[in-house]
Design a protein that fits this description.
Layout: E1 12-16, H1 21-32, E2 36-41, E3 53-56, H2 62-76, E4 81-84, H3 101-129, E5 132-137, H4 151-171, E6 176-183, H5 189-202, H6 206-216, H7 228-239, E7 250-253
Parallel strand pairs: 1-2, 1-4, 2-3, 4-5, 5-6, 6-7
Family: Belongs to the short-chain dehydrogenases/reductases (SDR) family.
Protein name: NAD(P)-dependent dehydrogenase, short-chain alcohol dehydrogenase family
InterPro entries: NAD(P)-bd_dom_sf, Sc_DH/Rdtase_CS, SDR, SDR_fam
Length: 261
């Protein structure tokens, strides 16, 4: 019987936004598989809240990224796995007329440029060692935008998808794999706050707000949101030796939400 090697023993992994939600679940999962995990976020999660090496950094700031990479190269001599998880919805809903240049720029900085900036600084060592895996955490919004809720966010994630494919093609013959993971609705504190804010602004109950949001995306066939650990499990497989022939592809983990194949 064929067995799949999903051990990450001896691997060095960086998870951005790795102190909560999907990022924390990924960091914990990779560590359990044997990886030495580094996490970064804007603010320290507090004593006892992370078992991983923490480096504070705002990835929308080039100077912070330079300091982060310098510390990684000094202490760990590079990394083998990069999980670009930092991102989020910061622009208001309401459609095109509510979005200013600043809204667009902020969304692109957080959801696209932060990843390209970090890739650009960490890729050289991966290429030098002729091995590495980069995962971009995107969103099903990149293929299923909601004009009244997440227009700028969805556009920035669509751009991330395209960039990830281009980078994968460039590095495939050089030993570095690049993949995209696109979660749908996932039960994280930011998602719960988004639902609460939407319900409050609409003057409806939390349950009604959740149902209205589900209706806008056509529902979730599985009938529930994903757990962060389920996204982490997929990421673990993709960065492992078991997925050695996978690159340049995008994986939706959305309970069947996307209405297309």
């Amino acid at each position: 019987m064929q067995t799949f090697n999903t051990s990450l023993q001896g691997k060095r992994a960086l998870v951005t936004g790795g102190t909560k939600g999907i990022g924390k679940a990924i960091a914990d999962e990779l560590a359990q598989a044997g990886a030495q995990v580094i996490v970064t976020a804007r603010n320290h999660p507090g004593e006892g809240n992370t078992a991983h090496h923490f480096i504070a950094a705002d990835l929308t700031q080039a100077a912070d990224v330079a300091q982060l990479v310098n510390e990684i190269n000094t202490k760990f001599d590079g990394i083998d796995i990069l999980i670009n998880n930092v991102g989020g919805l910061t622009a208001p809903g309401g459609g095109f007329s509510t979005l200013t240049d600043e809204h667009w720029e902020n969304e692109l900085q957080l959801n696209l440029i932060a990843a390209t900036r970090l890739d650009r600084t960490l890729l050289p060592k991966m290429l030098e060692q002729k091995s590495g895996v980069i995962i971009h955490i995107s969103s099903v919004a990149g293929k299923l935008p909601l004009w009244n809720l997440n227009m700028a966010y969805a556009v920035s994630k669509a751009a991330l998808n395209s960039y990830s494919k281009a980078l994968a093609t460039e590095t495939a013959s050089k030993g570095v794999r690049v993949l995209t993971v696109a979660p749908g609705a996932t039960k994280t504190p930011p998602m719960e706050k988004f639902i609460q804010d939407f319900a409050t602004a609409s003057g409806i109950s939390l349950e009604e707000g959740y149902q209205q949001l589900l209706n806008q995306v056509g529902g979730i066939p599985m009938g529930r949101m994903a757990a962060p650990e389920e996204v982490a499990s997929l990421v673990h497989f993709l960065v492992s030796p078991a997925a050695a022939y996978l690159t340049g592809t995008s994986y939706a983990i959305d309970g069947g939400t996307l209405p297309v194949v």
